[in-house]
Amino acid sequence: MYSIPATYWLSLFFITFYSTWGIFLPFWGAWLSSNGISSENIGLLFTLGLVLRFVSSLSLLSKVSSAKSILRLLRILIFCNLIAFSCLLFTQGELWMAVLTLVINFAIGPLMPLGDIVGIRLVNQIGIDYGRVRLLGSVSFIIGSTVVGWLIVANGEQAILWSIVFLVLIMWLLSLLNLTPKLQEQPKAVNEPKTSLWSLFKKRDVLIFLVIIGAIQGSHGAFYAFGTIYWSEVGLSGASIAGLWAIGVAAEVILMRFNIKLFKSWSIKQMLLLGVIAAILRWLVFAGTDNFYILAFIQTFHAFTFAVTHLAAIRYISFQKDNEIVLYQSLYSGVALGLMMAIFTYVAGFFYEDLKGGVFLIMSLSLLPILGFIKIWKVE
Prior knowledge:
This protein has 380 residues and is mostly helical.
């Protein structure tokens, strides 16, 4: 088997994965819709997909016990995605599209954290600049969504699936290569005191933290599932829609690049307050206009609604005891980013057919109580 410098491997993995993610996240709902899946069923599939991503991440990542098992699991999951996406090129019928979409969600869920695990290990082993390498992923997300937006204009929605199959094939071939240097085994902690997820979940302030973070991040569910579909229905072109997605991610990249300078003196509660106010305004504007230029401006708020909220959550988690950080990360990923986003997405899917853009008004109004939760939350 051929070898590749580890830094190049990680860079190429982030480029191929996030290019794929930049197509799948904004355009998969549009592909399903173009193949006859109703808005309500698309919302249900997105909801079940979020749950399956949570289940697969929680169950499969816990099986990773060695450096070899990390890459082995990556290869298996990428191959499963390649087979599932390829089958969609030849299968017809709502049932098969639904089943394969759920398989894809289960297999794609752990890929992002697995890439991060490889990156963290390489930081410790050879001192790579993880932030700079990870930034390639965000840039690739923009390029992937933008290029496919152009391809949709020229070739229709089938360009979505063909582009994903091509990228996943490249990603799988990349996963077959060996890293130089190889990933090293991590030393195991001895006599480390145990804390359970349930014991943390029962703590009042931890629960409030999950509600705050989960509501802000979960409110993105309507956008992820129906943003592209809604904008298509109001007359925006594929290129314009891709541009709007790119603007949001570009704003996220810029904020992440300068986050230390921007938020060094901010408290966690102040960052979350910015996140929830920005989200209330963002979804309110989404519900009220289809003007491209207004939407382009409000899309820059993604830097606040997603990135600042995420940074606040990571900062809060980093303040916890060393032996509890993984548990807090699991709760953040599972409850806030998984289950709560699934709930918000299901609600959006249930009402979308009748309300269309009005679902964003629901997202906006649902965040008003979070202002009170932030006020009463005590950051330990």
